[in-house]
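Sequence in, structure out.
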Amino acid sequence: MSNTFLANPQHPPKAWRLSTRLLRGVTGIVGGCLLIVSLMVIGFTKFEIAERLDDSLQEVAERLQFAVLLLNQPGNVQAVAHLSHITPLSLAYQITDTQGHVLLRSANAPVEAFVTPIHAGFYGQKAFRVYVMPAAQPDRFILVGEPQFHRAQATHHAIFIAVLPILGAIPCIWVLVMWQVRRSMAPLVRLQDEIKERGSGNLNPVPNLNLPTELATIQTAVNLLLERVHKALAAERAFAANAAHELRNPIAALLAQAQTLHSTITAYPATDQTSAIAQRLTTMTEQIQRLGRITEKLLQLSRAVAGTGLQRNRFDMLSVLHVVADELDPPHNTTPQRLVLETGAFTSLTVMGDMDATGILLRNLLENALCHSPTGSAVHVNLYAETPQNQTCTTQQHTTLQHTAKTTPPFAPTLKTILLTIENQSTALSPTTLTALTDPFVRGCTQAEGSGLGLAIARTISNHMGVPMQLFSPIPGHKTGFMVRLSFPVVTEKT
């Protein structure tokens, strides 16, 4: 049953904290032990108090022997001893004959005998705890009673005095245990923070943290794993980079030979054979060019995964955007403009990162937007400051489709955030396709040329730069289109 529970994604295991479990466990055990001790103290106190009070009754009865000697006349004559400072909590006594007739009693004692028939010993009644003792005179008995209320009050006071320090110690124990648990868990928290910082861009071994023996083995295992992952990724990146780099020269040479051969063939008189050869050479040239583009994308992906976006330098992102846009859509081109830049009043935008990595990021996003934009439509690039109005979207826009690229840090707009949006008028994508679109070699349902690496490269670089990237399809407020939104934190002079 537990395996089924773990395998069911709808019922994930509940998260729990080791420190909380230790704190609750230790405090629960200590509190339980203190509770048992308190119950034992209560029982022992009640027993001791009852025993001491019974001894007092017996002692009072023995001291009343002198009063028996003063009673010379037996019978029904009842005398009452009136003493000062008699309260309902004071001890009461009676002197009776063998038939239970009260001969002498205290002012707070009842008129009738405490117990009948009269026999020596202790008796528990509703109002009194009574001790009966035969007097020195054979036909007389001494009865001493203690109010049960006074006995209960004395017992409760004794229990309260004995148990209160134990109960008061529980909050102190909780605080001390919590302090000790947190102090003991501090090395584990440091190890957790160090491991949390590790990722594809940071595979450095965990430094020496002066951990206890139980955690030192975990640190050693993590460092060994990081070393293996680093070697595997380094080998993979080196292979991709070397393969792509080594392919560039042969591909360029092959493209040159194909173009030269095509020019040579077209110089001959046109025949069916030369036309067929020229057509095949045209196809070959297109495929070689496509192979060159894929090789270039692999080189960019290798650089992105290698962590070029992790570098932190100040540069003007707006100038990089203009350079990339002018390269993809020259401003003096005779064809209709395909890239429309709207930068508003911004003349510069200083951000932290790597200029080359940002150029690769913007180039891939713009190329992707141009490649999948319908013929005759323009790609719009907008740059504007973050405001409370554009921080939120309507519920319908969110449910229409808003999918953040995988592993992208959560978007937290600030007053120093600049939004860059890239929009085209392509057909709206399904939620499944949009979610997986940033994975390598994943493409939407389109006939346009492409390698499926552009958005994967952009996602990797944006993650390294700490720039949240969000994908929308359709564009919020529209029924079609595709939009990418980047949130650049602005660097101020005080940063």
